[in-house]
Amino acid sequence: MSVPIFPTAQDAENAFYDSLERCDLEGMMAVWAEDEEIVCVHPAGTRLSGQDQVRESWAKMFAAGPRARLTIEQQVAISGMMLAVHSVFERFTIPEVKAEAQPAPIVATNVYLRTAAGWRMIVHHASPAPGQPEAAPARTKGPPKTLH
Amino acid sequence: MSVPIFPTAQDAENAFYDSLERCDLEGMMAVWAEDEEIVCVHPAGTRLSGQDQVRESWAKMFAAGPRARLTIEQQVAISGMMLAVHSVFERFTIPEVKAEAQPAPIVATNVYLRTAAGWRMIVHHASPAPGQPEAAPARTKGPPKTLH
After folding, report:
1. ipTM value
2. What percent of chain B has pLDDT over 70?
C-alpha cells in the first residue's frame, strides 16, 4: 500500500476520522507520525505511547467492525508552521439505537506535525463530554486561525 | 498585579501547575492566552471555551482552597516556533489519605502559544488515567524535542 501524503493538518484529520468510522487500521496508522513519541488517550483510558501501543489499541477497538456513524462538530483549530492543534467533538450515532440512548459525545484534542512526509498526527486525546455542549464563543466555521 | 511574561512554554507550564496546586485563580488566569478560542476540558467534564467559562471553572475548583500536593510526571514535549505541546501525568496526593485511597492520576495535554506577551496556554485537556501508567518508550527526561 502506498503511504498517503497529507498536504494539510485538516487532510490528516479527515483521514483519521474516515479511518475511525470505517475501522480501517492501516488507514488509521498511516495518519500517525512514525515516531515513538506519539501519544494517544482513548476515552476513560490511560496514556498510550509509541507505535506499538497505539496500533494495538486501535486494532482492539476496530475488531468488531464498523457499527456507528461519526460526525465531527465545533472544531476549533490553530495552526503554526510545524504544529497544528484541533479541538473537536466526535458524535457517534448507532443506527439501531434511539436518540436518547446514543452515546455521549466525545471531546478530542488532536495535534498534527508537519513532517517530511506531510502532516501527521502526534497526539490524540479523547474523553467523554457529558452534558450539553458549550454555548460557546468558539468559532465553528471558517478557516483555522493561522499563526505567522 | 503585573502580568508575568513566560519566556518558554515550560515556564508557563510551571506557573500553571504552581497555581493549580496553590488554588491561585489570578496566577492561573495569567497563564492563559487572552483569546476567546482557549479550550479547557476538566476530568470528566465537557469542553469549556473562552475566558469567562475557563475562569469560572477554576474559581469553582479553587473555592475550597488547596488540599493536595501535585507532582507532574512523564512529560512528553514537542515545540515549534509558535506552538508547544506537552503531555503529562498529574498526580495529586492528599496528605491525610492512605496511599491506596489516593486519587487516580490525571493525564493532561497542554498546548502553549507564543504571543506578544510571552508563552501562554491555549488548550488544557485533562482526563482520569486509571490503571498503571504506560511502560513506555516515551522520553521522560531531557530537553523537549524542538522542531526546526
Report:
1. 0.89
2. 89
Select from A50, A82, A134 the Cβ nearest to the Cβ of B46. A134
Confidence at residue A113, expressed as pLDDT on a 0 to 100 scale: 96
Q: Vertex B34, ends B29 and B35: CA angle to 5°?
A: 125
CB contact under 8 A, A147 and B83: yes
Residue B46 contacts by C-beta under 8 Å, 6 or more apart in sequence?
A: A107, A129, A130, A131, A132, A133, A134
How high is the mean pLDDT of chain B? Answer: 89
Record the pTM.
0.90
Residues in CB range of A33: below 8 A, 6 or more apart: A113, A115, A120, A121, A122
What are the residues of chain B with a beta carbon less than 8 Å away from any beta carbon of chain A?
36-37, 39, 41, 43-50, 53, 74, 76, 78, 80-85, 87, 89, 107, 109, 111, 113, 122-123, 125, 127-134, 136-139, 145, 147
